[in-house]
C-alpha cells in the first residue's frame, strides 16, 4: 500500500467534515451559550448536550482512572458541569493510590445544593447516585 492509498480514507473524512461545516453558520460575537449548545446538538446529534450538575466526591487513596475516566465522560457531555469535591474541611490536594495529587475547588460543606448526580470514589468502589430519586 502506497502512502497516498494509506491516507485516502482520512482525506475522505476530512472532505465530509468540511462539507458539514460549510452548512453551519459561522459563530458570531453575539452567540449565547444556548446558541452554542444548539449548534453542538446540530453537529453531533441529540443526546450530546445536557445541563446536569455532577458532583464527584473524592476520598484519599482513590484510583486515578476511576476519577479521570468518568470525569472525562461527564465533562464531554456539552453543557454538563462537573465539580470534584471532598469531605475534608480544607482544599489540600488529595492523593490517589499511586500518589497522583488532585487539586480541589470546593468542599462538601461549601458545595452548592443543586447537583443532579453524585459520583463517589473510594479506594474500592465507584458509586453514582441520582440525587433527584428517592
Describe the secondary-structure layout.
Blueprint: H1 3-22, H2 33-44, E1 53-58, H3 64-75, E2 81-86, E3 94-95, E4 101-102, E5 106-107, E6 117-121, E7 126-130
Parallel strand pairs: 1-2, 1-6, 2-5
Antiparallel strand pairs: 3-4, 6-7
Structural commentary:
The protein has 134 residues and is of the alpha/beta class. The protein has 2 domains: 42 residues, no CATH class; 78 residues, Class I glutamine amidotransferase (GATase) domain (Rossmann fold), CATH 3.40.50.880. Helices cover 33% and strands 21% of the residues. β1, α3 and β2 form a beta-alpha-beta unit. The termini are far apart. The mean pLDDT is 77.
Secondary structure tally: strands: 7
Here the CATH topology of the largest domain equals Rossmann fold
Total of helices:
3
Total number of distinct structural domains? 2
The CATH class of the largest domain is identified as Alpha Beta
The largest beta-sheet arranges its strands as 5-2-1-6-7
Structural class: alpha/beta
- N to C succession of SSEs: HHEHEEEEEE
The termini sit apart by: 59 Å
The second-level CATH architecture of the largest domain is: 3-Layer(aba) Sandwich
Strand-residue proportion: 15-25%
CATH superfamily of the largest domain: Class I glutamine amidotransferase (GATase) domain
Q: Give me the Rg, rounded.
A: 20 Å
> Low-confidence runs (pLDDT<50, min 5 residues)?
none
Tell me roughly what share of residues is in helical segments. Answer: 25-40%
Overall residue-averaged pLDDT value: 77
Shape by Cα distribution: extended
Q: Give the biggest beta sheet.
A: 5 strands, mixed
Amino acid at each position: 500500500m502506497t502512502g497516498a492509498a494509506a491516507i485516502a480514507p482520512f482525506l475522505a473524512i476530512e472532505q465530509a467534515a468540511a462539507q458539514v461545516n460549510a452548512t453551519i453558520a459561522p459563530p458570531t460575537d453575539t452567540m449565547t451559550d444556548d446558541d452554542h449548545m444548539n449548534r453542538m446538538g446540530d453537529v453531533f446529534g441529540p443526546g450530546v448536550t445536557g445541563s446536569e450538575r455532577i458532583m464527584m466526591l473524592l476520598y484519599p487513596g482513590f484510583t486515578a482512572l476511576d476519577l479521570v475516566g468518568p470525569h472525562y465522560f461527564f465533562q464531554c457531555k456539552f453543557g454538563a458541569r462537573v465539580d470534584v469535591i471532598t469531605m475534608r474541611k480544607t482544599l489540600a490536594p488529595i492523593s490517589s493510590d499511586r500518589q497522583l495529587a488532585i487539586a480541589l475547588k470546593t468542599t462538601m460543606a461549601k458545595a452548592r445544593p443543586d447537583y443532579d448526580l453524585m459520583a463517589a470514589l473510594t479506594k474500592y468502589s465507584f458509586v453514582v447516585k441520582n440525587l433527584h430519586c428517592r
